[in-house]
Write a structure and sequence with these properties.
The structure holds three protein chains of three kinds. Chain A is mainly α. Helix content of chain A is 75%, strand content 0%. Chain A is globular and about 70 Å long. Chain B is mostly helical. The chains are: A mainly alpha, B mainly alpha, C alpha/beta.
């Protein structure tokens, strides 16, 4: 099958992506080498990033928060997806819909609702007080915990969906076979189910980790004085002080980091599958 | 499934806890849309004022309309591009398929913040002015991978030989497409389009960077109101949107169940 | 194979049709704008302004539109930089009048984006406070006036009158341990650095020792409940009783008090940050005469007085300020005494902005 003409059908999508996703990134890469001050081609923007510990520190914090959110999401989403796919019969579609419905509200509004929900004197606080669990002021809001709660809420349902889809495709007959051949439940899970659901897990992790790393609204609203992320720094460069090219350089470094992480994750996932 | 009961109870607890976590803030926000206090403070005092204000807020309504149109265009184009891609992709050589695939899925592994700002840089570098077409393109590019994900899950269960068999039995390509391919893909196309619609409808970062002045979408209006004065009007709006999407969802669900399942032959 | 072609054709047609409808949408919007101007029925005056900032006030709009047989079309800006971008990228006739402040004015004047103001066409100009008639940033390098001060206000101390027995009397209170956990400082590099400079006795517009400022701000960080970023955030923090003290705008404090919050505003003797908003006419405006009329109406004594009484910012028109109830003026810190304590924000070069922003980023990341 050399050059099947039916492959033409892939072109419109490819063209759109090349022109409006890949090409802008090339431009971004180019502008990141242009100095904001002089307009000349230089490494100044990158030098600035690496010579200032602050940027590296904030990047580290952002990665850490994103990892936490991903991990928490995985711990919640996997068992949920597993139960939905393998234990529930008719109910699973209803639960799936219930998991998706919160997405119909705007993400910014949901973050805002968390703010109201978590604040001292807010609803959760009152609830805890009536049960005598908290004296005054929960002190959850304006901490990293609040950021993690908010971001997990924002993204983990995606992960439930991807893992659920991977698990649902598994053939029940195969699981029965594994069991009838004497494999224990744990063995079946470890050797059959989990490896086969790996593609779902990987897309789930991607779908949570990436947007977290780029988030800039949620941490600011929920994180208080400690809510500074690399996304905020980029946003400030673009909207506060017009250091677009320096912003582009930080964005490119963030992108490079993301790609390295994803590459690592994908190869790790493949190893697991084999 | 021997000791189904034990996992059953634990599973139920897990499901209930997750749903509680998911719905607690949503419930709060819906509740506060009926609360009198502008600062969302308690105690609760019932009012419908915020809904009346919402109905009279022209800027917000205009933004809602823009969001809807934008999301609709994004959803439709994503389904078309995605379906074509997924059909054509099967005939690609293995290596090309890998490359094509990674390019098309690329936006999924890039934070939207970066997608937005790189497009803005491109627009500026090439001397264009911001306009709605760029916004729509930005939305399409980031939503496409999600609809592809759904479509791909479906197409892998569609046997290529079925189409070939149909062709060898004398069916024209269009007939084959209509009778075999389309019915098999339809649920995934609807689901994929729906997903793209939702991603576009809710998208803030891309619109934030690319929106020309004078235009606005719902997420942008909401961000502005977070900046300049968040009233329970936004809560009222969100409540309306949830109600509206529940209706849409119910309709989609009904169509999916009655029509398409019988077309596909009722497998899974 | 035919199938592929047909699908391709279908797909392409669909994309083209859709993108054309999208194009069509934008085009008609523009066309209808110019078509109206051509017909000369009702002239449209394109205003770029903050939301809820008088140009969209129902009473004002009705009166002005009726008197001048025109229609005011408001576009809202979300930051000063946003306005500068709009001025730079906006085409001929897209903006007729806009509201820049000191942070972008010199840049806009230098780039030739603004029209010199002929004060003869703004009769109310003479009623402005003396200091506003000679506002530094409004005057270009050529000595010409490019913008007319409209309103001013201050960023200083707002506090809870129920919880604090004594009114704060100094900016140093933001750095005082006794308010630990009850302060909401503003997340803004300019206000943060200027306030710290005042507390340290440095010149807020040209601080001499940035390291000391940074150290002070880092120490201050732990005293905050949070940094507030948006006015709405502050009002909710305050209304829910989470903070007692904040670095806040005079205007919003007045609004909150009008709504019954136990809040008061002080500009202490050791300083407060002042700002001025100015009207300017873009060089590309096609309705300059109408724009002049609009600016003059904006400076009108009665209009300004009425707005400030509704909770608007302080009037630049001296006659309007003097016509106010002195008690009310003092409470809102728009009296002459408060004015004399203020240090007005000055223009900062990109380099200074970058340095200050870096400093503030370091404080927040510490």
């Amino acid at each position: 099958m050399i050059k099947d003409r039916r492959t033409i059908m892939t072109w419109p999508a490819m063209l759109t992506l090349l022109l409006f996703a890949l090409f802008p990134l090339v431009i971004m890469f180019y502008t990141s080498f242009i100095s904001d001050a002089t307009g000349e081609f230089s490494m100044a923007n990158y030098a600035k990033f690496f010579s200032n510990l602050t940027y590296i520190k904030v990047t580290g914090t952002s990665i850490l928060i994103s990892l936490c959110v991903t991990l928490v999401s995985l711990v919640i989403a996997y068992p949920l997806a597993y139960i939905m796919a393998k234990k529930l019969k008719g109910l699973k579609n209803i639960i799936l819909v219930l998991v998706i419905i919160p997405f119909f509200t705007n993400q910014l509004v949901r973050v805002y609702s968390w703010l109201i929900f978590l604040q001292d004197g807010g609803i959760l606080n009152r609830l805890f007080m009536t049960f005598g669990l908290a004296e005054n002021g929960l002190g959850i809001l304006y901490t990293k915990a609040a950021v993690i709660i908010g971001l997990t809420h924002a993204f983990f349902p995606y992960m439930v969906v991807t893992i659920f889809m991977a698990l649902e495709r598994l053939d029940d007959a195969m699981l029965e076979a594994s069991r009838s051949l004497g494999a224990s439940k744990t063995t079946t899970f470890m050797k059959v189910i989990f490896p086969l659901s790996m593609p779902g897990v990987i897309s789930g992790v991607t779908i949570v980790f990436i947007p977290c790393l780029g988030s800039f609204v949620e941490p600011r609203i929920l994180g208080g004085t400690g809510g500074l992320t690399i996304g905020n720094i980029i946003e400030d460069q673009f909207f506060e002080i017009y250091g677009w090219n320096f912003g582009a350089a930080i964005a490119f470094l963030l992108l490079a980091m993301v790609l390295i992480c994803m590459g690592g994750l994908n190869s790790a996932g493949k190893r697991w599958q084999v | 499934m021997s000791n189904n009961n034990k996992t059953g109870v634990l599973g139920k607890i897990l499901i209930i806890l997750v749903l509680l976590y998911l719905y607690a803030p949503i419930f709060v926000l819906m509740l506060l849309s009926f609360n009198e206090s502008r600062y969302n403070s308690l105690p609760f005092a019932f009012t419908l004022d915020w809904y009346r204000d919402l109905a009279e807020d022209r800027a917000l309504m205009e933004a809602a309309k823009n969001s809807m149109v934008l999301a609709l265009i994004t959803g439709i184009i994503c389904v078309i591009l995605g379906t074509m891609f997924i059909l054509g992709q099967r005939y690609l050589a293995r290596r090309t398929e890998g490359i094509f695939n990674s390019i098309v899925m690329m936006p999924m592994s890039i934070p939207w913040l970066i997608m937005g700002l790189s497009s803005l840089l491109m627009i500026r570098q090439l001397g264009f002015e911001k306009n709605m077409i760029f916004v729509a393109l930005g939305h399409i590019v980031i939503s496409l991978p999600y609809s592809l994900l759904v479509l791909r899950a479906r197409i892998s269960s569609l046997d290529k030989s079925l189409e070939e068999m149909s062709a060898s039995l004398g069916a024209g390509p269009l007939t084959t497409f209509r009778r075999i391919t389309l019915p098999a893909l339809a649920p995934a196309m609807i689901a994929g389009g729906f997903l793209s619609f939702m991603i576009s409808f809710d998208n803030f970062p891309i619109s934030y960077f690319l929106m020309p002045s004078g235009y606005s979408t719902l997420p942008i209006e909401i961000q502005l109101s977070i900046k300049f004065g968040f009233t329970p009007e936004i809560n009222a709006l969100s409540t309306v949107i949830i109600g509206f999407s529940l209706v849409v969802l119910a309709i989609v669900g009904l169509i999916m169940r009655s029509n398409i399942k019988s077309l596909v032959g009722g497998d899974n | 194979m035919k199938l592929a072609k047909k699908m391709l054709a279908f797909g392409m047609t669909a994309i083209m049709v859709l993108s054309m409808t999208a194009c069509g949408g934008t085009k008609t919007a523009q066309e209808s704008g110019s078509a109206d101007a051509d017909k000369g029925e009702v002239t449209k005056l394109y205003v770029v302004n903050w939301k809820d900032y008088l140009s969209d006030d129902k009473d004002f709009v009705e009166k002005f539109e009726k008197e001048n047989n025109c229609e005011i079309v408001n576009t809202y800006m979300d930051s000063e930089e946003d306005l500068l971008t709009k001025l730079k990228t906006g085409g001929e006739g897209e903006i007729d009048v806009c509201l820049p402040n000191c942070s972008i004015l010199p840049a806009a004047i230098e780039a030739g984006l603004l029209e010199p103001i002929d004060t003869a066409k703004v009769p109310n100009f003479e009623q402005l406070f003396e200091r506003f008639q000679t506002q530094k940033e409004c005057i270009g390098a050529d000595g010409k006036l490019y913008a007319v001060p409209f309103v001013w206000g201050s960023t200083s101390i707002a506090y809870n009158t129920d919880n604090l027995k004594e009114a704060p009397a100094s900016v140093k209170d933001f750095f005082d341990e006794k308010y630990k956990g009850r302060i909401a400082f503003r997340d803004d590099y300019n206000d943060a650095i200027m306030t710290a400079a005042m507390a340290l006795g440095q010149d807020p517009n040209n601080p001499s020792d940035l390291d000391a400022i940074k150290a002070l701000l880092i120490k201050q960080k732990a005293l905050n409940k949070t940094y507030w970023q948006t006015g709405d955030e502050f009002s909710k923090l305050f209304a829910s009783g989470q903070v007692d003290l904040g670095l806040m705008w005079s205007g919003q404090t007045a609004t909150m008090r009008a709504e019954g919050q136990p809040i008061a505003f002080v500009v202490p003797a050791d300083g407060g940050i002042g700002w001025v908003d100015n009207w300017a006419i873009p060089a590309s405006s096609k309705n300059k005469d109408l724009a002049y009329k609009f600016i003059n109406a904006m400076l009108d004594k009665d209009t300004q007085k009425a707005w400030v009484e509704k909770g608007g910012p302080a009037p630049a028109n001296q006659a309007a300020a003097e016509a106010l109830d002195p008690e009310y003026a003092k409470q809102c810190c728009i009296d002459e005494e408060s004015l004399s304590h203020l240090v007005f924000m000055e223009y900062r070069t990109d380099e200074v902005k970058q340095t200050w922003n870096d400093l503030w980023t370091e404080v927040k990341a510490s």
